[in-house]
Sequence to fold (640 residues):
Amino acid sequence: MSEQLAKSTPPVVPQHVPAPVEDKAISPWKEAWRSFKKNKIALVGLSIVSFFILIAIFADLLAPYHYKDVNLSDKHIAPSAEHWFGTDEFGRDILSRVIHGARISLWVGFFSVAGSVIVGSVLGIVAGYYGKWVDGIISRIFDILLAFPSILLAIAVVSVLGPSLKNALIAIAIINVPTFGRLLRSRVLSVKEEEYITAARAVGMSDTRILIHHILPNSLAPIIVQGTLAIATAIIEAAALGFLGMGAQPPTPEWGKMLADSKDFIIQAPWTVLFPGLAIMLTVLGFNLMGDGLRDALDPRMKS
Amino acid sequence: MGNPVLEVKNLKTSFLTEDGAIPAVDGVDFHINPGEVLGIVGESGCGKSVTSLSVMGLVPTPPGKIEGEILFKGENLASAPERRMRQIRGNEIGMIFQEPMTSLNPVITIGDQLIESLRIHRKWSKKEAMAKAIEMLKLVGLPRAEELVREYPHQLSGGMRQRVMIAMAMICDPKLLIADEPTTALDVTIQAQILDLMKRLNKETDTAIMMITHDLGVVAEMCERVVVMYAGKVVEEGDVKTIFQDPKHPYTVGLIKSVPDMRAKVGRLYSIPGNVPKPGSIKSGCSFAPRCEHAGTRCITETPHLTTQEGSHQVRCWLYEDGKGVNLHESDSAIS
Fold:
């Protein structure tokens, strides 16, 4: 019997582990980043998104005024050196409110999508892997959720929970659950037929371990793509709920709410509507461009 | 000789379909002794792979249904619960698959895939397991093992991946290795290297190998005993020399004749006429009878039994019933 194989105790770990040779191991992620870098439009998307993320992080430092500062004598001032984006009907600085609004929109976007990803993935994976009646029940729940127009469902959820930013976030998370659930379910269905899953079972892995170690890593790419695009939708939905008065409550500087508050002054003070509207448009555009770029980079079928 | 590592008794694996149960494996008996290499040969669709998956407990049930006994070191795996099977898979029985290109997860590093069974069965730390993985990669003859563990499957060639698969199957030092057509997807020079490697590991570690193949060349190279399967049944069994020098069953004779001979200048290669019948389509008689040139009326009406010839040579054919011998080689040459 060979000395090497006969050992049943762990071998001695060598003291000098050779330095990692980074460029030798081309991970699928590095490869994706390489092709993402070549996509100019995707980079524009990434820059826009990073720009808004930085603004959200450093909102307190960047905003020239406090977003709550009411100064009725300064109401509806047109954009000027003192107030770059002008002021609203309470004399609040719109630039400061837009800057703080970035924090709210991104927060809602990220966390609602994170919620949908977690809940949707778990349900989708369970449905896809176990099949049978489990799949039947979960898939029917998804079908029912998808049967409602999304904004209507969100309004219904908020009506039950009461209007607030947190509840709007929950409502948006709920309406996006089936998107991720179906994505993961179909992914699991195709991956579980792969030979490497049989090979994984042949080394004695349990179902749970296979799901976490083999199927989930194989499903990350579509989750990231769909997640990025879903953040864009979530931001629009949050703005829509805010516009309808079912999301953030005053004086929170939520972009949708700002649009709703200013819509009566669209002729006298167009800047009150223009800048929050532009902010919504730009962030959503950024996430969409980035999402499309990620899809091209991560989906092998899109590669030419 | 000692007790066999694996003893399969009257194994029947059937799949429930809308047309009733279809038997893919229909009453198979064989055994593998410790350290032995057993070949299981037959055409595509004769139940070789299903037999190996049944031993591993990897046949999905339902629609699959396993009957009979699979005794691994005396323990019946056919009735073992899934929890027990998980302890055996990868730890006591390793398996190598046909397609090295699709048997490794493309998004996980080689090292992480190699250490899985050590982490599960031995509960080793990641560092210890990784050191063992590197050691195993060296053992299966892979260069720069330290770098390889951090690489992804797409960076390796088919032959290298098959070596990784062998390392993965052997890392827990199993008593039995099931190799399901391990060289079919590889080109000829790599095939020889992989066979050499498996032979060396068999000698060094005393791991018994169940070699499933349709390639008689592989059998001649590797195995000590052979089981010839046809349509879910064992039709002939014996040691390699006997089978090659004195094949009894007309199917085995046909298989051996179909191996292309480089030296013979013949225009056409020999092939057995017809195809393997659909499982379950032959209700009575010998399942090879429709393709057999020696088939008589008895072959169509009555199912033959395995009968013992000289030594441990067994054959399932009416031609050899009651010990009467027929020399197929001469009668064949007379026909052709």
About this structure: Confidence is low (pLDDT under 50) at residues 1-7, 17-23 of chain A. Residues 57-63+82-299 of chain A form a domain with the MetI-like fold fold (CATH 1.10.3720.10).
